[in-house]
Fold each of these.
Amino acid sequence: MSFALHVPARIRPAFSGFAPLSVPNYRRFAGSNVLAMSATWMQRIAQDWLVLQLTHSVTAVGITTAAQFAPSILFGLHGGVVVDRFPRRRLLMVTQSLVGLVSVLLAVVALTGTATVWLVWAAAFAIGCVTVVDNPGRQVFVNELVGRRHLKNALNLNAAVFQLGAFMGPAVAGGLIGWVGGGWAFAINAAACCVTVLMLSRLDASQLQPVPRPQRRPHALREGLAFVLRTPAIRYSILMLAFLSVFTLTMPVLLAAFATQVFHLGASGYGLFNSVGALGAVAGALASTRLTHLRLRIVVLCGTGWAAALALAAFMPSVPTFCAALIVTGVGSQYFFQSGNPLVQLSTLPEVRGRVISVWVLVVLGGQGIGGPIMGGIVDALGARGGMLVAGGVPAVAGIVLSVLLARRGSLKLSVSTTRPRIAITER
């Protein structure tokens, strides 16, 4: 069996990692995303701190996180069906408006001193429900903004923006909480949602590249899952992602253990390690724009390398060497995501892309939900260094086994070139 996906326009050769910014619609979208992602991270920090102030319980903070991620695990696949069925720009305007309303409510109760933990949990769950649609919708909408020609680099830039928000947002939120209180972080996020809605309304509709909408039918969800299972590029990429999500993406547990048990730096060390990792991720997201070919073997090798770097970090003897290892793991994580996510999107038919990406998102979030308690138990049993060795070692071994299986099979040849006007996917 052999088939090819044709790119409508000739693709420029290499080194145009920032080329998507030449598209006015994408430039507006990316600009508002810098503010939106930073404000989202500010709200997450303020939300957790508010729960800690109300309850003085770390367990309660964990329940808050669970409330926000639970809808994605429970309903994530259905979010992809919604994204495929309705116009994505309008969907994002609705989701951002809803998040803004919830943020306004949190700002009011926090600033007036009337907040309760149950209200914060309900707000976290409500935002999680909106995220079920917003997350895959935001990723898939990029294709309508820039088309297939710039899709890979646009996804890389989106990842850099997300990591930049993860780097800036917590730092700003920490200072804001100490200065005027966390309630203003909620207000800032509400304002950022308004900016996003305004930006979406001002996009040039004539320059968008809409995708065909599938007809409503009873087995739409099953159709998306079937496409994932029968497409080797997607199937194997998501399998590698599953191992990484369960083990390697549990970094908060591992970094907290290293900060307290190994280097005895406390909260300041935990903040330092998170910031260093985010800095490496920003660098990796920008550097990975120079990938001119996407292949399944590259996705697997990038995931294996990322996991191996994390396993090596377990042996670092000092804070400087450990931070250097975290930068490498941050870079490695983005090389995996920015080869895997574009390959999955480019290997997907436009009419099922929302459903396929919802599977990707579900594995990312669901894997972390499963892996958090597992890695917590492993760290308790083996210590911080043993836990990090397991977190990196298991996905690294899985990646090696998967590479050997694909090599022995020898029947799958997959290549996506961003420097040629043709994308070939061949299975014999």
Amino acid sequence: MRRISLLLGATLCFMSYTNAQEVKEKEVKRIVSTLAADDMEGRAPGTPGIEKAAAFISKEFASANLLPLPGESSYLQKFNKYFLSTTSHLLKINGESKDWIVMPIGNNPDINWTIDGSYTIVHVKDRRDLIKALRSGTPEKNTLVLIDSSLTEFVSAIHGHFSEKVFDTKEALESAVEKAKSGSQIVAVLEQSPIADDAKIEINIKRTISVKPYENVGGMIKGRSKPNEYVVFSGHYDHLGILPPVNGDAIANGADDDASGTTAVIMLAKYFSKLKPERSVIFVAFTAEESGGYGSTYFSENLDPDKVIAMFNIEMIGKESKFGKNSAFITGFDRSDFGPILQRNLKGSVFNFYPDPYPEQDLFYRSDNATLARKGVPAHTISTTQIDKDQYYHTVDDEVETLDIKNITSIIKAIAASSTSIVNGTETPTRIEKESLKK
């Protein structure tokens, strides 16, 4: 019986790899080029650009005849968050006004500083030191964090995770504001030129409570024999929006990060819509990954994790991996047998999946798979990014011209083929141990 099952599995995998050849390079280029075009304005949440992107993804899902997600009437999964938005700020160095990025950390709506010896000044030039400084909690004294310009790529994350931290209700934010008024504060400034510690620094900031609408874009195929078991394919379609201009270009197009992954999700939706899978398959493009992971968090909170068999999160597949062409890596490889299943399903092909080669980067916790993984789901991210040396990451130069479209197409075909046994219910990855994950 086992021999028959293995033979059947091998046959299905061969057929799926053959069928995956229907994923066409021309179509991949069309989709990724549309998502990363200048008129999408960098797809920052709450902007016309991301709304245009959501409409485009919805249209592509409709062409694949997807159903809306459970409980939704359209492909848009909408939710609101509350945050403190800056209405005005003034920064003066030795009496001279500076048009620099200023980010209040915490929940005090009004900051009026003239910095002297009673303040703490911290200079940061390293990512880990930056995170440590911003996560220090309520400091003993008001603290100015001066961020070296080499860390500009982290500005959006600072806004989302620290400066514009969101709350589910207005009442919760109002409570946090009242509490913050009695404590010391942190203000982060992106240092465009060196500031001496004895310089006269004045900072004035006013913020008000605002509501920010968000939209995930999702659809599904209902499984034939196991409709209550879900396999999720995901990527985030948001990016950084408009950045300080470099050589006249201010649009962070986000071609690799993550128009490439969103393109894969769309192509996989069209691929599986023709195959009538046994398990239900969800395809979702998350919002606000760059600014706090709010889209994937909301999605995860509205889905029973015990019904989710696996999650294929696809993040930055636009360039050749360190293992060469026809390869990608899987984050958290040792946390379940998700990776070995995919490897086995591709045996005999030209494509290979590898364990994450950058464990020091904590990539498993830095993408949209993390929320469901914390709930025990074998949720992993597939990527090719050479994160340690990618010159285009989080810059205005992350454009379609930097992508390897042929290699993206190869990766999408490999994901389609390697996932077939999971989608068709013949294999089920082991669960991730909840208590083993960071919080």
